[in-house]
Amino acid sequence: MFKRKQKLRREINEQLLNTLTKCKNDWLRQKRIVEGSIEPSEEVIYQLKLSEAKYLFLLKEVRHLNLSFNKKL
Fold first, then answer.
1. CB contact set of 45 (below 8 Å; sequence gap of 6+)
2. Coil, strand or helix: which one is 1?
3. How far is CA 5 from each of CA 53, 56, 61, rounded to the nearest angstrom?
4. Sign of CA dihedral 40, 43, 46, 48
5. Could you tell me if residue 11 is inside a domain?
6. What domain range includes position 49?
7. Less packed terminus of the chain by CB within 10 Å, N or C?
8. How far does the chain reach from its first CA to its final CA, in angstroms?
9. Whole-prediction pTM value?
């Protein structure tokens, strides 16, 4: 029974780290678009702020759970 919980926790942690990586890449991509734009629209700026908020939230959760990419999950 404990192995099942450990396996489930490991899978959830892997998903969280994968989602964090995707959100970071999305945020950085949108940041480059805004920096390269002469006059970015409000929608683009809104999407940038939303992406940043998602990334920072997930980063806070990963830190709270004391996870890292180097750890053996």
1. 34
2. coil
3. 30, 27, 20
4. negative
5. no
6. 21-65
7. N
8. 18
9. 0.83
Token pair 């683009």 is found at 44
Q: Which two tokens stand for residue 10?
A: 């490991």
**Residue 70 amino acid letter:** N
Please state, in angstroms and rounded to a whole number, the distance separating the CA atoms of residues 43 and 36. 15
Residue 13 lies in a domain: no
Neighbours of 53 (CB within 10 A): 12
pLDDT digits (tens, 9 = 90+) for 5-38: 889 989 999 999 999 999 999 999 999 999 999 9
Q: Determine, yes or no, domain membership for 50.
A: yes
* Separation of alpha carbons 29 and 37, rounded Å: 13
Distance CA 1, CA 46 (A): 45
* Identity at 32, one-letter amino acid code: R
Q: Which residues contact 20 (CB under 8 A, 6 or more apart)?
A: 55, 58, 59, 62
